[in-house]
Design brief:
heterodimer, A: alpha+beta, FAD/NAD(P)-binding domain, D-Amino Acid Oxidase, Chain A, domain 2, six-stranded mixed beta sheet, disordered C terminus, B: alpha+beta, 3 domains, seven-stranded mixed beta sheet
C-alpha cells in the first residue's frame, strides 16, 4: 500500500531552517504534512547580515509575511543593487541593479544591442545609466513597480541576520509548526536512509523525509553515503570570511558596496542601525590578523564591536538528496556571500523541492531530478560569481592574476564567448540571473562586445540617437520619481501598498 | 557600421523565400545584398500546410499583414491538432495551443485533475482547455489580450497553401529588394584553402558570388551536404516513416485544427483550407507497400479528390552541423522531421530568427557559428523526442508498425521524461526549444499515460471543493465557447480568399 509523506523533519538553525519549514508548511500543511523543526544552536554572530535578492519578497508573499513587519523588526533596508568598485583596475565602479523590464519578445532587438553600437562608435555614457535599477541605486532611491511602464526594476533587502531569523521562527511556530531546540547526539543510518535522529536529551526522532537545512556543516547529508563535498576552491578563491559592524550611513544608500582589495573583497551592507561588513579573502595571500588591522582603513570607517572570522568552503555535495534525506541551502551547495545569494540558495532549493515533492513515503524517485536541478542552479550561480573574479583587471596581485587565468566551465565559457562576440547571453536552464543580470555583470566588468546585431544598422542614425537619448531621460526621470530610502522607511503608506501587492 | 554582406540563398521553396523575405526586411537596406537562386525546372516540396503558432511572430517581425497573407494563401485558423486512434483504436484527443485549467494554476492543474480522477470524478482533460473546446466546436476568435481570462491563455496558427505562402513571401522579398536569379547550379566554387564557398556557377555561365550562402536546396543539400560534406544523422530507427502520399480534396468542414489519424503503417493528415482540404498519408515503406498506402489514403477521403496522389520520399534526421564554413542550411537541406506536429516551417523560421542576431561579419566568427549550431541542435532534438513520444506511447497491437514502436528503445532524454510523468506527473521545463509542458501534458494524457501519483500539493483543499472548482471552470469554458463565432463565418468576415468557393 502506498503511503503519503506525513512527517517532515527540518534540521538546522537560523533563517535557512525556518525558511524551509515555512515553505513546506505553506505548500503542504493543508495536505496533511506535519513539519517539525529540530533547531540546532545558532551559527550567527551579532555582526551577521543577510543580503537578499528581490525574490525574497516573493517568498514573504507566499508565507504571508508583511514587508512592514520586516522593516520594523529586522533593521531591514531595501537594496536596489550591488555597487562593485576596484574590481577592474582603474575603470569606474558599476552598479548591478535588479532590472525587470521584460526582455524583448521572440527575436526582437534589445536596447543592449543599440547601446553596443553606440559604445563601439564612441558613446561614453555607461550602460548602467540606461538601467532603472542601477540609476535608482545611484540616487539612493528604491525602485518601486511602475504602472504600465516598459522599464521596471525592483529591490531586495539587507536584514539583520539574527533579527530576521527570530522573526521567521516566530512566524513559523505561530503558524503551527512544532519546533524543538536540541543538539543531535546521533544519526542512525540504515543503508542509504536515516532511520532516526537521536537528540542530546535521548529523544528519537523519526520522519518520512529529513530536510537538512543546517548550512555548510551539513549535519545530515554530510553523513550520507556518496554525498561527499566537492570543493570549488579552484574556481572561487576566498576561503576566509570576517564579519564586523560600523556606524550606520547617512544619508542611507540603497545599494550594497562590494570593493575588491589585494587579497579578496570587502562588502558593506547598510542596515537601519548599523553598517554590516563582510571581508572575504584568500588565506594563502593574507592572515586574519592582517585583514583585521587593515579593515578600518579599507572600510574607511571605525569598526564597532567584535569582528568574527569563519571559514568559507564553496562547493556542492556530490548528491544533494540521498534516501530520505534532502539537503537545502548551504547544506546542498555554498558560494561566496556575494551577489545577495545566501538566502536565495535556501529559497531556491525549497522551491525546487516543492515542485518535485515526493509522492510516496519510502520511494524517492524524485531525488535524481532534484539533484540535477540543484546542480544546474548551483553551477549557474557559481559561474555568475566566478565572472567577477575571472574578468578582474587588477594586475600584479597574485590572487587576481591567478583568477584571470582560471579555467572556466563550458557553460561560462559559452556565455563569455557569445557575449564577447555579439552581446548575447546564452542562458541555461534554471538560471537565477537572467539577461539583464548577466549583461550588466559582463559590461560592468569591462567585457564590451566586439560586434552587434546587424539589425541595429537598419535603424536610421537620427532615430537611434533619439532612442538612446530618450531612454537615458526616461530612466533618469523614473529614478527621480522613486522614493529615497529614508522616505521609504518612514513609510508613505501608499508607496508601501504598491510594493507589497506587487510581490504577491 | 557593420560591414554589409552579400548573402546568397540557394533554392526558392518555402524555406528559401522565407529566408529571403525575412533577411531583406530585417537587415539594413544599405549595402546588404540578398540574392536568391532558383530554377523553375526544380519542383518544390511545399507539403507543409499546417503551421505552429510561432509563425505569427515571424510574420509580425517582417511586417506582414495577417488578413492579407491569409487571403493570399487560402488560409484558415488552427487551434491545435487532433490525434485519432493514436494511443489506442477509438481514442481521440486534441493537442491545443493553450493551457489546461486556469492560466495561473498551470503548474498544478493537472495534479488537481488527477486527484479528482483518482477520486472517481471522471472528465476529459481537454474539457479544461479553452483552445481545445473552441477547436472541437469549430469556433474561433482572437485571444483576449487586455486582461487575463479563460480566453486569453492560448495562441493560434494557420493552415495555408505553403506554395502560395512561398509565392506571397517572394512578392514581399522582391518588392523590398531581394534579387532573384533563375538558373541551375553547375558548379560550386570554393576557396581552396578555407573551403568557404565563393560563388555558384550557373548553367547559364553566370557566376553568383557571395559572403554567406544559405542552403535551401531541399533534401539534396547541395551546398552543406554535397559540397561541404557535412554528414547526416539518421533518426529513422525512432521515426520510421519514410514516404508520404499527398492529395487535395474538395473543401469540407472548415475545422480549426489539423487532424492526424493513426493508420495501419503510419498516419494520415487532414488540413482544411479555404478552398480545399489537404490530405496525406505518412507511412513506412518497411511496413506497407506504396500501392497499398496510396489505396488506403484514397479510400479514407471524405470528399472528392482533386488530383492524383503525389509521393514524397524522406528520412528523419538532420545534418550534424547546421552551419559550416560560410554556409547555413535551412529547411530540408538541414534536416527532416515528419510533419506530425507541424514543425517543418517552424524549423525554417527558428533558423532564420536565430541566425539574424548572430549573423557573422565578413570573416566567420566560430563563436557565433557554434552558438547557432547549439541552438539548432536543441530545437531538432527536442522536437524529435516529442514526435517519438507519439509513436512510443501506444497500446495498439493491431499492426506491425505499432508493435515495433511500442517496443522500441527511445533516446535516453525521452525515456526519462516518460518515467517522470508516469510516476509523479512531473513535466520538466526547458528554456530553449519548442513544446511547453502543456503540450507534453496533452500528448501524455491523450495517449493514455495516466500518472500513478499526483503531487501532494494538490491535496491542499478538500475533495468536494476541488471538484466543484473543476466543474465550475469546465462550465465557464463551455459557456465562453458557446458565445464564439463559428470558424467559417469568422474567416468569411476577416480574410475570405477571392478564389475560395
Amino acid at each position: 500500500m502506498k503511503r503519503r509523506i506525513e512527517r517532515v523533519v527540518v534540521v538546522g538553525a537560523d533563517a535557512p531552517a525556518w525558511m524551509a519549514a515555512a515553505a513546506i508548511h505553506a505548500s503542504l500543511g493543508g495536505s496533511g504534512v506535519r513539519v517539525r523543526v529540530v533547531e540546532l544552536p545558532s551559527r550567527l554572530r551579532p555582526a551577521d547580515c543577510y543580503s537578499a535578492l528581490p525574490a525574497l519578497g516573493g517568498f514573504h508573499g507566499r508565507i504571508g509575511l508583511d514587508e512592514d513587519l520586516l522593516l520594523r523588526v529586522c533593521q531591514a533596508l531595501p537594496c536596489a543593487g550591488q555597487r562593485f568598485s576596484g574590481w577592474s583596475g582603474a575603470s569606474l565602479s558599476f552598479i548591478q541593479g535588479y532590472d525587470q523590464s521584460p526582455p524583448p519578445s521572440g527575436a526582437a532587438l534589445s536596447f543592449t544591442q543599440c547601446w553596443i553600437k553606440g559604445r563601439l562608435s564612441g558613446l561614453r555614457t555607461p550602460f548602467e545609466s540606461f538601467l532603472p535599477g542601477a540609476m535608482a541605486a545611484r540616487a539612493g532611491r528604491v525602485p518601486l513597480p511602475v504602472e504600465a511602464g516598459e522599464l521596471q526594476a525592483t529591490y531586495g533587502y539587507n536584514v539583520d541576520a539574527g533579527a530576521y531569523s527570530a522573526l521567521l521562527k516566530h512566524w513559523v511556530t505561530r503558524g503551527g509548526v512544532e519546533s524543538k531546540a536540541a543538539a543531535i547526539a546521533n544519526v542512525e543510518i540504515e543503508g542509504d536512509r536515516i532511520a532516526a535522529l537521536v537528540l542530546a536529551d535521548g529523544e528519537r526522532v523519526e520522519a518520512d523525509l529529513f530536510v537538512d537545512a543546517s548550512g555548510p556543516e551539513a549535519v545530515l547529508i554530510g553523513r550520507m553515503p556518496a554525498a561527499e563535498f566537492e570543493s570549488w576552491r579552484d574556481l572561487l578563491p576566498c576561503d576566509r570570511m570576517m564579519a564586523a559592524s560600523a556606524a550606520p550611513l547617512h544619508p542611507c544608500p540603497s545599494f550594497s558596496q562590494i570593493s575588491a582589495f589585494r587579497d579578496g573583497w570587502l562588502g558593506f551592507f547598510p542596515l537601519q542601525d548599523r553598517t554590516a561588513f563582510v571581508a572575504s579573502y584568500d588565506s594563502r595571500e593574507t592572515s586574519d590578523k592582517e585583514v583585521l588591522e587593515s579593515l578600518p582603513i579599507l572600510a574607511n570607517m571605525p569598526v564597532v564591536g567584535e569582528a568574527v572570522v569563519s571559514n568559507l568552503a564553496q562547493g556542492i555535495r556530490k548528491r544533494t538528496w540521498v534516501g530520505n534525506c534532502v539537503a537545502v541551502g548551504e547544506a546542498a551547495f555554498s558560494l561566496e556571500p556575494l551577489d545577495a545569494v545566501q538566502l536565495h540558495i535556501t529559497h531556491n532549493c525549497v522551491s525546487q523541492l516543492m515542485s518535485v515533492f515526493p509522492v510516496e513515503a519510502g520511494n524517492f524517485r524524485e531525488a535524481e531530478l532534484y539533484d540535477e536541478i540543484i546542480r544546474r542552479v548551483a553551477v549557474n550561480l557559481r559561474d555568475f560569481q566566478m565572472t567577477h573574479f575571472k574578468l578582474n583587471r587588477r594586475f600584479d596581485e597574485p590572487l587576481w592574476d591567478r583568477c584571470r587565468d582560471m579555467a572556466v566551465a563550458d557553460t561560462l565559457r559559452r556565455k563569455l564567448d557569445v557575449f564577447a562576440a555579439r552581446g548575447r547571453v546564452p542562458l541555461c536552464d534554471d538560471e537565477t540571473f537572467h539577461e539583464h543580470g548577466w549583461e550588466s555583470l559582463f559590461i560592468g566588468h569591462g567585457l564590451i562586445p566586439q560586434s552587434y546585431d546587424p539589425r541595429v544598422d537598419a535603424i536610421p542614425e537620427q532615430e537611434l540617437i533619439a532612442t538612446v537619448q530618450g531612454r537615458l531621460q526616461s530612466v533618469r526621470a523614473l529614478a527621480e520619481a522613486m522614493p529615497p530610502v529614508g522616505q521609504f522607511i518612514a513609510g508613505t503608506a501608499g508607496a508601501r501598498e504598491t510594493t507589497s501587492s506587487a510581490h504577491i | 557600421m557593420t560591414k554589409p554582406l552579400d548573402i546568397v540563398i540557394l533554392g526558392g521553396g518555402t524555406a528559401g523565400w522565407m529566408a529571403a523575405a525575412a533577411l531583406v526586411s530585417l537587415l539594413p537596406a544599405n549595402g546588404w545584398r540578398i540574392r536568391l537562386v532558383e530554377s523553375e525546372e526544380i519542383g518544390t516540396v511545399g507539403v507543409g500546410e499546417a503551421t505552429f503558432p510561432e509563425i505569427k511572430s515571424f510574420n509580425d517581425a517582417i511586417g506582414i499583414d495577417e488578413a492579407e497573407m491569409m487571403r493570399a494563401t487560402n488560409a484558415a485558423f488552427k487551434l491545435g491538432i487532433e490525434f485519432v486512434d493514436w494511443g489506442f483504436k477509438g481514442s481521440r484527443y486534441i493537442h491545443p495551443f493553450g493551457v489546461h485549467g486556469p492560466a495561473h494554476m498551470e503548474h498544478i492543474f493537472h495534479h488537481q485533475w488527477l486527484r479528482a480522477l483518482q477520486a472517481g470524478w471522471n472528465s476529459e482533460i481537454g474539457e479544461f482547455s479553452f483552445a481545445a473546446q473552441a477547436a472541437r466546436n469549430c469556433r474561433f476568435q482572437f485571444p483576449e489580450t487586455a486582461r487575463a481570462s479563460i480566453d486569453s491563455a492560448y495562441t493560434y496558427a494557420y493552415h495555408f497553401d505553403a506554395s502560395l505562402y512561398g509565392a506571397f513571401l517572394r512578392g514581399i522579398a522582391e518588392r523590398r529588394g531581394a534579387q532573384r536569379t533563375e538558373g541551375k547550379v553547375k558548379h560550386v566554387v570554393q576557396d581552396p584553402e578555407s573551403g568557404d564557398i565563393r560563388s555558384l556557377l550557373l548553367e547559364s555561365g553566370e557566376s553568383v558570388a557571395g559572403d554567406l550562402f544559405i542552403d535551401c536546396s531541399g533534401f539534396r543539400s547541395l551546398l552543406l551536404g554535397e559540397r561541404l560534406g557535412i554528414g547526416w544523422e539518421d533518426w529513422s530507427k525512432w521515426l520510421v516513416c519514410d514516404r508520404a502520399f499527398a492529395v487535395p480534396t474538395e473543401r469540407n468542414e472548415l475545422s480549426p485544427y489539423t487532424r492526424s489519424t493513426a493508420m495501419q503503417a503510419g498516419w494520415r493528415w487532414r488540413i482544411p483550407l479555404q478552398h480545399r482540404t489537404g490530405n496525406g498519408y505518412v507511412f513506412s515503406s518497411g511496413f506497407i507497400s506504396e500501392d497499398e498506402a496510396a489505396t488506403s489514403l484514397m479510400q479514407s477521403l471524405d470528399t472528392k479528390a482533386l488530383a492524383e496522389p503525389r509521393m514524397l520520399k524522406f528520412q528523419s534526421g538532420r545534418r550534424v552541423a547546421a552551419w559550416a564554413n560560410n554556409c547555413i542550411s535551412m529547411g530540408l537541406a538541414g534536416g527532416f522531421l515528419e510533419p506530425l506536429e507541424s514543425t517543418s516551417i517552424y524549423l525554417v523560421q527558428i533558423a532564420i530568427m536565430q541566425l539574424v542576431p548572430l549573423l557573422p561579419e565578413k570573416r566567420i566568427d566560430p563563436r557565433l557559428r557554434d552558438e547557432f549550431n547549439r541552438l539548432m541542435d536543441l530545437q531538432y532534438e527536442r522536437i524529435r523526442d516529442f514526435l517519438i513520444l507519439h509513436y512510443k506511447l501506444t497500446t495498439r497491437d493491431d499492426s506491425e508498425i505499432w508493435r515495433y514502436c511500442a517496443a522500441m528503445d527511445v533516446p535516453e532524454s525521452l525515456t526519462r521524461k516518460i518515467d517522470l510523468f508516469r510516476h509523479d506527473g512531473i513535466i520538466e521545463k526547458y528554456k530553449d526549444g519548442l513544446f511547453t509542458p502543456t503540450s507534453w501534458l496533452s500528448v501524455f494524457i491523450g495517449q493514455g499515460l495516466i500518472p500513478e501519483n499526483y503531487s501532494p500539493v494538490a491535496d491542499a483543499i478538500s475533495e468536494e471543493k476541488l471538484i466543484s472548482q473543476l466543474d465550475e471552470f469546465r462550465e465557464a469554458v463551455r459557456d465562453r465557447v458557446d458565445e464564439m463565432l463559428p470558424h467559417d463565418r469568422f474567416i468569411d468576415r476577416y480574410c475570405a480568399a477571392d478564389s475560395a468557393a
